[in-house]
Amino acid sequence: MSRGRYKVPAGVGDWVIAVGVAATLLVTGVSGHPSGTGLDLLGLSLLAAGGLALAARRRAPVPVLVVTGLCAVGYQAAGLDVPVVAYLFAVYAAVRAGHRTVTVVASVAMLAALPLAALASGLHDTGEAFAQARGALELAWLIAAGAAGEALRQAERRADEAERTREETARRRADEERLHIARELHDSLTHQISVVKVQAEAAVHVARKRGEEVPQALLAIQEAAREATRELRATLEALRDDDTTPPHGLDHIPELVERARTTGLEATLTIAGRPHDVPAAVDRTAYRIVQESLTNIARHAAATTASVHIDYRPDVLAVQVDDDGTATAGSAPTPGVGLLGMRERVTALGGRLRAEPRDDRGFTVRAELPVERTS
User: Fold this and answer.
1) Considering only CA atoms, which of 299, 312, 291, 306 is closest in space to residue 371?
2) 8 Å CB contact between 91 and 107
3) What is the pTM of this model?
4) Fewest CB atoms within 10 Å of the CB: 24, 88, 261, 366?
């Protein structure tokens, strides 16, 4: 239920309209039939019921259309010559909700039933019965109510389409900008870093071939160039990743573990629980957490073993990565870009992330990602 700054909730507005229509019908009925007979009381009850039924016109437009129509026929048959205002409101609501065919059928039935109801009320003249029915439900009123509902339905549909178009345009512009940044990075940095890397590796090779001691500064340049190349490739891959290419997810985690083993790290993967489909955002985030964790272990932890544990639960996907590196309980982790990126991803999904040294030495990264299983 939404409300604007100066607007009342939609449900409250529906009840105000329903009570107002019911009160108007009751006043009209009482003023026209002051006799207070038992039959009149039944008719007045139908007047009130028809008006109050409008409170549910947004949630159940077709049932409200039927109820208001039956109430209108009922109080006409009871001798209350009151316009079927509640039914006109119901016609407007049903057409606005898109139930045009049902509304047309119900309205034709109403036009046929009202003269019969007038005859049942005690009128013996057919012409007078048709005149009373025409006064209760003018065809022009009926058409106007349906036209108003259809006009508003079309306006809402166009507004939704315009909003969807704006979102698609914004998404397309964001994709184009991301690809533009990726091209700029590739064109401006990749070549220069590659030159530095090749020159450094060539200098190291020549020095070793001559039997000379390789300067530490040169080795540092070589390693920095390699690291920059890997970082740049990862950045370009993230920038170019969009909905048109299959993203990496939980199914690709075994590849990460296998790749970690090729670096000399004894890595293991354990899966607990019954695997099930998870939202795409959770799928990608779990992959990125494992990827970043294994990368940090290889670079900074000086570890020999690493374990990846994935736990499928009904409402949570838990991902945990442990290593036996040099981190100790007394040392605080340095909040690098990778760790901050993991935390931002997990927080955006409403999950929790714990990244800290363990008491028995080593480091643990544990993320709990909420899973909304709608299908």
Assistant:
1) 312
2) yes
3) 0.47
4) 261
